[in-house]
């Protein structure tokens, strides 16, 4: 990942399935090709839902990690 990649953040903390994925879909629609969306979620289902969403929609899940209680996903459009 290059340092000049545009990154937007979606704070989905406190949202439960399916809201994190629905909000990610809406945000990614308006983003440029190649842009990266950083999704921060604390719903345990997100660990399954976000990778599945990326596969189904053709987005590239670059990285998945944890910051404290939050799951962090980096998704390239």
Structure description:
- Strand 3 and strand 4 form a beta hairpin.
- It is built from two helices and four strands, in the order βαβαββ.
- The model has no long low-confidence stretch (mean pLDDT 94).
- It has 77 residues and is α+β, with helices and mostly antiparallel strands.
- It has a single domain (7-76), classed as TusA-like domain (Translation Initiation Factor IF3), CATH 3.30.110.
- The relative contact order is 0.25.
- 30% of the residues lie in helices and 35% in strands.
- The longest helix has 12 residues, at 46-57.
Helix-strand topology string: EHEHEE
Described by strand count, sense and barrel closure, the largest sheet is: 4 strands, mixed
Helix content: 25-40%
- Reported CATH architecture: 2-Layer Sandwich
CATH C-level label: Alpha Beta
Number of strands: 4
For CATH, the homologous superfamily is named as TusA-like domain
* Large-scale geometry: globular
| Rounded average pLDDT | 94
**Percent range for β-strand residues:** 35-45%
Radius of gyration: 11 Å
Structural class: alpha+beta
Write the layout of secondary structure elements.
Blueprint: E1 7-12, H1 19-29, E2 36-41, H2 46-57, E3 60-67, E4 70-76
Parallel strand pairs: 1-2
Antiparallel strand pairs: 2-4, 3-4
Would you kindly provide a brief summary of this structure?
Helix content is 30%, strand content 35%. With 77 residues, the chain is of the alpha+beta class.
């Amino acid at each position: 990942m290059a340092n000049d990649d545009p990154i937007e953040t979606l704070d989905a903390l406190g949202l439960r399935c399916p809201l994190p994925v629905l909000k990610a879909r809406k945000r990614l629609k308006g983003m440029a090709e190649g842009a990266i969306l950083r999704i921060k979620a604390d719903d345990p289902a997100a660990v399954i839902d976000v990778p599945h969403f990326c596969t189904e929609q053709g987005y590239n899940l670059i990285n998945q990690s944890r910051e404290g209680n939050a799951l962090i996903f980096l998704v390239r459009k």
